[in-house]
């Protein structure tokens, strides 16, 4: 009992010290934040003064670092009328959460991190860096959480976003001064010509497509990519099947997770299928309504990719355990068309 009481006292003492330390650091932290904001506003002023009116982000911000780029999309956007005239806005937080599961600055941090991963993969796979002449398609662009972070690298005429949601396409067309946004049907073809894009990425799209939709879109991407073009997709991994099982009986589910306990109900069979190179897809009317025959939750195994994707791509890579779970909780599949 004495040891138990001592542990409680020690914990309370540590908590008190931590609170006092935080109180002492808070003014210093605030001062540092304001200094950073002032420096960044000064940097912004210099960039705006050195470029002609109406210059696109790729002209204004091509040389800035990622920290400043993120600041422009968060605190800079809130503080500067000039930034709000150049960069795109945001939908309501409810809409942000519905589509990506986070809102505000947190969503921007993930958007920047994802764009950095995609740029790095493109450079490694293609053997060259992005340039303003690189043509990029964000397939399943939603409200442009990732698309916006390519604006400093790509000529706006070569940056495209497409989505099945009329609402999201309408928002992007209204909110984005730069880039081109269009609606795609659930199944191809698109309106893009053959050999249009150097890079196509699809964050959390192939994690929802049926096998039929999946294969049809792979064929379409092969068509609209240039020779040697790169396709990057993310998909759910084996652990998602276990997550659906573990959510059963929970009472704290949200609007974007409440349908998950009803999926992959035969956990052992689903895991066995995944481990044996299967394509695991399940859906429900509760989660996806009238689209549930082709849209749901998808876990694609490495074995499946290596067996079926060579029909579309010359070079393949599958990143599962090496994927950065701090960026997105999905595996990454990379394909490069024949040069």
At CATH level 3, the topology of the largest domain is Rossmann fold
Distance between the termini: 73 Å
Shape: globular
Report the sheet-strand fraction: 5-15%
Structural class: alpha/beta
- The side-by-side strand order for the widest beta sheet comes to 3-2-1-4-5-9-8
The radius of gyration over CA amounts to 23 Å
Explain what you see.
The protein has 13 helices and 9 strands. It has 339 residues and is of the alpha/beta class. It folds into 2 domains: 85 residues, no CATH class; 236 residues, Rossmann fold. A 7-stranded mixed sheet has the order 3-2-1-4-5-9-8, with helices on both faces. The chain has a two-stranded antiparallel ribbon with strand order 6-7. The longest helix has 48 residues.
Write the layout of secondary structure elements.
Layout: H1 2-49, H2 57-60, H3 66-73, H4 75-79, H5 81-86, H6 93-100, H7 104-126, E1 136-139, E2 159-163, H8 166-175, E3 180-183, E4 197-202, H9 211-224, E5 225-235, H10 238-246, H11 267-275, E6 279-282, H12 285-288, E7 297-300, H13 302-308, E8 315-319, E9 331-336
Parallel strand pairs: 1-2, 1-4, 2-3, 4-5
Antiparallel strand pairs: 5-9, 6-7, 8-9
Helix pairs in contact: 10-11
